[in-house]
Amino acid sequence: MFIKNGWYVAAWGHEIGRELTQRWIIGEPLVLYRTQAGEVVALEDRCPHRRASLSKGRLVGDAVQCGYHGITFDCTGACVHVPGQEKIPSSMAARRFPVVERWQWVWIWMGDPAAADESLLPDFHYNEAPGWVATGGCIPVEANYQLLTDNLLDLTHEAYVHGKTIGNSAIVDVPIEHHVEGNEVHVQRVMRNTPPPPLFKRVRHFEGNIDRWQIIRFNMPAHISIDARGLPAGTDDVSRGLRWFSINSITPIDERSSLYFWTITRCFDLEDEALTKLIGDQIYKTFMEDVEVLEAQQIMIETDQRQQPDVSIRADSGTISARRIVQKLVEESNSTAVRQVASRVAG
Amino acid sequence: MFIKNGWYVAAWGHEIGRELTQRWIIGEPLVLYRTQAGEVVALEDRCPHRRASLSKGRLVGDAVQCGYHGITFDCTGACVHVPGQEKIPSSMAARRFPVVERWQWVWIWMGDPAAADESLLPDFHYNEAPGWVATGGCIPVEANYQLLTDNLLDLTHEAYVHGKTIGNSAIVDVPIEHHVEGNEVHVQRVMRNTPPPPLFKRVRHFEGNIDRWQIIRFNMPAHISIDARGLPAGTDDVSRGLRWFSINSITPIDERSSLYFWTITRCFDLEDEALTKLIGDQIYKTFMEDVEVLEAQQIMIETDQRQQPDVSIRADSGTISARRIVQKLVEESNSTAVRQVASRVAG
Amino acid sequence: MFIKNGWYVAAWGHEIGRELTQRWIIGEPLVLYRTQAGEVVALEDRCPHRRASLSKGRLVGDAVQCGYHGITFDCTGACVHVPGQEKIPSSMAARRFPVVERWQWVWIWMGDPAAADESLLPDFHYNEAPGWVATGGCIPVEANYQLLTDNLLDLTHEAYVHGKTIGNSAIVDVPIEHHVEGNEVHVQRVMRNTPPPPLFKRVRHFEGNIDRWQIIRFNMPAHISIDARGLPAGTDDVSRGLRWFSINSITPIDERSSLYFWTITRCFDLEDEALTKLIGDQIYKTFMEDVEVLEAQQIMIETDQRQQPDVSIRADSGTISARRIVQKLVEESNSTAVRQVASRVAG
Fold it and tell me: How far apart are CA B257 and CA B24, in angstroms?
């Protein structure tokens, strides 16, 4: 169950260069590369001739030459050469996917190219903003992408999964507030006068309690930013506090595996590279704790012969709203597809 | 095709302690642990909240705390804590499975708890009886559990598979006797004045022929004990003979893999630990010869596009009776389930 | 989709001896061995008793004894012994497959034995002809067998896949001629005054251009011989030219994996063993380049949710003809099977 008309992160910008890179998104194979002018191109990784994998071929200027029979496609997917014949068959074209490169990431639109709308990109500008420094990565996870968005929309789990880094029991006692705006979900938790979790202490050397904010925003299909703040309790002293964004985008490879793109981008001690490394290492470890939980959960769900319904609790309100939005968009897209087929048949 | 209302061996008693242990039985994941008082508990290894794997969580006293969101279940499966809220949803409960610990093994009832009946346990008391000493293990096998019960109910194969340890050609010439009592199958073979197989000779130093008995009893779903005796031919001299029970229980993991729990328990040379080790090693080797045959057989059955029917021979009478009993019990249980659904719908 | 009434290469002759060898062909497991007189025998690798794998058993003279319960089959598949009983059940027989050993290879007929017709063997006598010396092998490939026959029937790919050995761009500019004779496909390409590809140069030390012939013949189900010639351009001087046959037979293991049997058999420098080794090594490398392309293509085809139709070009005419022949023979065979069932029901 995937939204097609939506943006997915296909890669970090630095991953895509002048060689052909294969990536699978919502079950589709893609070949990605950068033109000589630096634009990122994404085509379906199947030659329309005999479905050979184009990413096994080579770049000829800005065109992709299939490594099997040499049929060549430009960066719009149009076929520009069929070896041994002048005439190019009219249906010989590789499917092209709209791409935008922004905020360090390469975004791809998996649905109708005519509907590709950059205003639907989530605002992840902190990944690359003056006065902010980001560290991050990409983790393959053997779990459905929605298990990851659930995870990020209910941070109660930090108390149980991440006690060594960003979690402690304080989080459990404070209920979340949540509201929905169109296709966005907002979840917020404010913890007053609470002990700082271990990583906060290492990073900002708090001596006493802090006031802690988690302001989470979900955008479809699977983008989540978390505005995380910890200030000395009862102060507004940002200069002695922690503020970072945890920026997350989950790209489904298929129904049971995902790529988890993430950054932590902070607005303090910008020059401190050791700190950047510390945060990167600790957050990676933290997310790998999630991966262990989520991969086990995936197995439990897919082996559940009775397909038992979930039993929800108060902390799930954000995750339930986000799943409803995705469900609604998938259904709308399916019924649009049915209407299009119907009108084509009627016409 | 599994019997649900029956006892399966979930583990050796010594395998279950104060840490959470996962095990799969007839396709269901279980979490097993021992309470502070020493009782073994088995719950479905799925948190009812979001189906996280409870065995990834932790014990808090005698309760299991889910490692994801901290929801906690006591050893009856009742939920005793939902972090962040007072009220516990009425359907928040982990499924509990009846457990009995007996004769060194932990037994689990996979069906209706109200129907759990200890009188249906097979009599395996020789695993832990005064005057008897047992050695054994647990072997994972990539084969359907009924291929293992077939194997144990027709020991003719010893001549072809186990020529180095417990088999020789004598076995082939003597037909089996068999009869059925309720849901029990008895198979017996008595070989008079026959050469002892290699392991018998190593263990009891026979100088001439022996009289040899194999008295096999099958109990549903997949329990088999073999009363094996070898006495100097023409004598009743148990003191110079071999007598042991081969006690076997096959636990289906799923339709194509199984756990094979086994012991050899003998009533001679009880203090001889080297002998215990010799028997354990030799029988393990013997059973691994079976594993090789059975795993190949499993592949041949599941790849058989024509699903050719078996061609039976005289030696199969015991295995056929046992399969009929299992078939009948599975069908009864299915039709009971259908009746229950029908009466719920009618009511 | 497999032709049953056809010959497949089961093995190189030297692979089959006095031990039992398992091989899978069109989804069927076979046990192969050689009788004391040197005849190759092929039986279904399932004991009719309980479908144990006969290849795990042993040879007793020219008979196969099942390694599980000792039931024994002669080299016609007839059961000659059931341990423990005199009477042999009438349906106790192993399925036998017709076998022919010819031109270094063991050929097996996978369909109705009564229809086995040696005149349907492709003429591969150059594998073992006076004045010719062959080198070759067998490569397992994770791809449908027809992707391999496609590959061999359109050698345009040599320019893109095999630039280091047998390919260069000359091939692209010359169109193929093709015609169909019954169930045979002939494809021919003649390249005049063209640079020799790298391996041709290494083997025959050409100093200038060559005239180059590729004369390809396809026989069902999946046999392809290529008569390859390269002579100094404008001459008929075979003594200074290259001529070899590339002889290929693809045996489907199942729908997505195959065994690729191949030889190169040449009629020059027969005694030069270093040359034989050079050709063997270089052609193996060349075919492994194909394997990489074909295994990627297989994945792209089997993951294609839309099952997009191929877009064909001029060079595909031979592959399309060959696929039509296979399609027709499979359909004929299916409708024959339906008629046989119908007449049995009617009768």
Answer: 10
- pLDDT of C347 higher than 60: no
Q: Say yes or no: A341 contacts chain C, CB-CB below 8 A.
A: no
- Residue A257 sits at the vertex; the CA angle it makes with A251 and A263, to the nearest 5 degrees, is 40
Cα–Cα distance for residue pair B224/B230, rounded to 1 Å:
19
CATH of domain A122-327: 3.90.380.10
- Alpha carbons A26 and A253: distance in angstroms, whole number: 5
> Where are any strands of DSSP class E within C28-71?
28-34, 40-44, 58-60, 63-65
Q: Does the structure show a pLDDT above 90 at C172?
A: no
Q: Cα(C208)–Cα(B33) distance, rounded to whole angstroms?
A: 81
The lowest-confidence range among A133-142, A336-345, B316-325, C135-144 is: A336-345
In this prediction, residue C28 carries a pLDDT of 97
Residue partners of B221: CB distance under 8 A and separation at least 6: B2, B3, B6, B7, B8, B145, B252, B326, B329
Contacts of C48 in chain B (CB under 8 A): 308, 310-311
Interacting residues of B16 by C-beta distance below 8 A, sequence separation 6+: B32, B33, B34, B40, B106
- Reported as a pLDDT band with limits 50, 70 and 90, residue C333 is confident
Chain B, nearest residue to C83 by Cα: B172
CA distance A11 to chain B (A): 29
Give per-residue pLDDT as tens, A303-319.
Answer: 999 898 999 999 999 99
Backbone angles phi, psi at B258, to 5 degrees: -145, 160
- Tokens representing C16 are 């089959």
Q: With contacts defined as CB-CB under 8 Å, which chain B residues touch C84?
A: 156, 172-175, 313-315
How would residue A103 be classed by pLDDT, with cut points 50, 70 and 90? very high
Domain ranges, ordered by start, for chain C: 7-119, 122-322
Identify the pLDDT of residue B221: 97
Q: Are B144 and B298 in contact (CB under 8 A)?
A: yes
Q: How far apart are CA C26 and CA C145, in angstroms?
A: 10
Q: Give partners of A (≥3 CB pairs < 8 A).
A: B, C
Contact call for residues B187 and B176 (beta carbons, < 8 A): yes
Looking at 2.102.10.10, 3.40.50.720, 1.10.3380.30, 3.10.105.10, the CATH number of the domain B7-119 comes to: 2.102.10.10
Partnered with residue A89 across adjacent β-strands are none
Q: What is the CATH number of domain C122-322?
A: 3.90.380.10
CA B286/CA A131 separation, integer angstroms: 70
Q: Which of A45, A57, A82 sits opposite C300 (nearest CB)?
A: A45
Q: C160 at the A interface (CB within 8 A)?
A: yes
Contact with chain A for residue C293, Cβ under 8 A: yes
C179 pLDDT higher than 90: yes
* Whether C232 contacts C239, CB under 8 Å: no
Q: Model confidence over B212-268: pLDDT tens digits?
A: 999 999 999 999 999 999 999 999 888 899 999 999 999 999 999 999 999 999 999
Structure tokens belonging to residue B341: 């659904």
More confident residue, C336 or B28: B28
C51 touches chain B (CB under 8 A): yes
Asked whether the predicted pLDDT for residue C335 surpasses 90, the reply is no
Buried/exposed code over A87-101 (b: 16+ C-beta within 10 A; e: otherwise): ebbeebbbbbbbbeb
For residue B243, the one-letter residue type is: R
C52 and B CB contact within 8 Å: yes
Rounded to 5 degrees, φ, ψ at C130 are -60, 135
Residues in chain B within 8 Å Cβ distance of A305:
27-28
Look at residue A347 in the predicted model and tell me its pLDDT.
53
Q: Is B211 on the interface with A (CB under 8 A)?
A: no
